[in-house]
């Protein structure tokens, strides 16, 4: 599979590194400090320990030992970007920066390394503090999620604290069902039909659309998707916002479905990769709006070791350029839905594949996947002419009485393997 990523990565486009801290940044910073003073004050000590851990160079020594829970904890993905943020507090000769610059570094962490706008965790604690003998309620803006993606990710980080230690996954991992070739299945389907390969999504609900299907039978839905020509399936595993479950992954596999399965999860921690694999996933989603480059690279390595494919999701030019700069990426999903605002615009796929970006994708043999908001054969041909070789579709299928039969309606023709035979 590696051989498909031909050529070396393009030079990192200018402007992707953290901008130098200028006077202008200080001004911006002071303004945000006024808005949410706690955010800055409290984030510095929290990040400092993690930042120290990541100082040693590009490959942190933190992956040296294996199979203890504490190693598992260092695979948690926040330290690299905290480290960069702290690094930004040192100026020129390496002397410690003035206090204001340290605050600027903390703010850079808040506004995001690699252009990531969401904050990975609440800065100081709960969103509301009860203060003093009079029970004042002090709302803490810095600790209130600003959008749904931030909310989901904060909850996911909290969920990670409840997980089983990594070493406990070792046995089940050894007994996990063999990995199937997700990338190959997409390619084969595209070659067979001349249409974008379908990744059909098994999704009960979403935060933007509510419950999509009351009588939700994941195994039946998966079976009808497969029968009607889906190349791969995407299975929502997030319980809180999508009413999904990791148990759907093994249930679908155990029922004999052959289509490779994408674990559709908000991955914030390497632990989730192992867990997805032992539940039978053949691929995972990595969201560039959530994960800094270092985390994506690290997780890609783990996926490779586990034999899983990774669908790296982007939703704007900046994320696309970041991901194109990472070696070994084979699948790039272009989400037409902005996960912060829920706005859907399928021309996003076209915009992100235009010009040099599209050429790089073609040269590297990457499959671009058009994601979200696809309802009609016109939509499918629109994203196909934009350059995608696969599409990820949920709502427009899952809401139909027979989601499998709906596939022919979506593509304007029957794409089931039987019809081709
Ligand atoms: O239901 P739609 O509009 O066809 O979208 C499917 C899929 O693209 C969407 O569910 C999705 C894309 N990226 C995600 C990340 C997390 C959760 C869900 C998603």
Overview of this protein structure:
- This protein is an alpha/beta fold and 421 residues long.
- It has a domain at 181-411: Alpha-Beta Barrel (TIM Barrel), CATH 3.20.20.
- Helix content is 43%, strand content 13%.
- It is built from 20 helices and 14 strands.
- The protein has an 8-stranded parallel beta barrel, surrounded by 8 helices. A two-stranded antiparallel ribbon has the order 1-2.
- A hairpin with a 4-residue loop joins strand 3 and strand 4.
- The model is unreliable at 1-110 (pLDDT under 50).
- Bound molecules: indole-3-glycerol phosphate.
- Residues 201, 203, 264, 313, 335, 371-374, 392-396 line the site of indole-3-glycerol phosphate.
What are the key terms here?
14 strands; about 425 residues; binds indole-3-glycerol phosphate; alpha/beta; 8-stranded parallel barrel; two-stranded antiparallel sheet; TIM Barrel; disordered N terminus; 20 helices
């Amino acid at each position: 599979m590696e051989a498909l990523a031909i050529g070396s990565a393009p030079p990192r486009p200018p402007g992707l590194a953290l901008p130098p801290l200028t006077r202008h940044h200080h001004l911006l910073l002071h303004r945000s400090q006024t808005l949410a003073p706690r955010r800055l004050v409290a984030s510095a000590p929290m990040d400092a320990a993690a930042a120290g851990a990541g100082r040693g160079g590009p490959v942190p020594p933190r992956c040296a030992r294996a199979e203890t829970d504490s190693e598992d904890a260092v695979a948690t993905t926040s330290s690299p970007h905290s480290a960069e943020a702290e690094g930004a507090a040192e100026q020129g000769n390496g002397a410690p920066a003035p206090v204001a610059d340290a605050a600027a570094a903390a703010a850079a962490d808040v506004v995001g390394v690699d252009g990531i706008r969401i904050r990975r965790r609440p800065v100081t604690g709960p969103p509301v503090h009860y203060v003093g003998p009079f029970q004042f309620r002090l709302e803490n803006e810095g600790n209130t999620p600003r959008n749904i993606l931030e909310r989901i990710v904060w909850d996911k980080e909290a969920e990670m604290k409840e997980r089983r230690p990594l070493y406990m996954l070792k046995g089940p991992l050894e007994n996990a069902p063999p990995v199937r070739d997700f990338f190959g299945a997409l390619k084969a389907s595209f070659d067979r039909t001349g249409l974008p390969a379908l990744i059909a999504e098994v999704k009960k609900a979403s935060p933007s659309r509510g419950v999509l299907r009351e009588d939700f039978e994941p195994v039946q839905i998966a079976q009808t998707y497969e029968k009607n020509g889906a190349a791969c399936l995407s299975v929502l595993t997030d319980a809180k916002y999508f009413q999904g479950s990791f148990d759907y992954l093994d249930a679908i596999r155990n029922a004999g479905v052959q289509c490779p399965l994408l674990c559709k999860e908000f991955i914030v921690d390497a632990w989730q990769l192992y867990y997805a694999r032992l539940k039978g996933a053949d691929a995972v989603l990595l969201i560039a709006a959530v994960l800094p480059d270092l985390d994506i690279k690290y997780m890609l390595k783990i996926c490779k070791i586990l034999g899983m494919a990774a669908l790296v999701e982007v939703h704007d030019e900046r994320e696309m350029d970041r991901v194109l700069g990472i070696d070994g990426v084979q699948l790039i999903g272009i989400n037409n839905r902005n996960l912060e605002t829920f706005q859907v615009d399928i021309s996003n796929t076209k915009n992100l594949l235009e010009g040099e970006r599209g050429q790089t994708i073609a040269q590297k043999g990457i499959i671009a996947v058009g994601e979200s908001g696809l309802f009609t054969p016109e939509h499918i041909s629109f994203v196909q002419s934009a350059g995608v070789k696969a599409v990820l579709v949920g709502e427009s299928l899952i809401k139909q009485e027979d989601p499998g039969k709906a596939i022919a309606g979506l593509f304007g023709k029957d794409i089931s393997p039987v019809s081709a035979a």
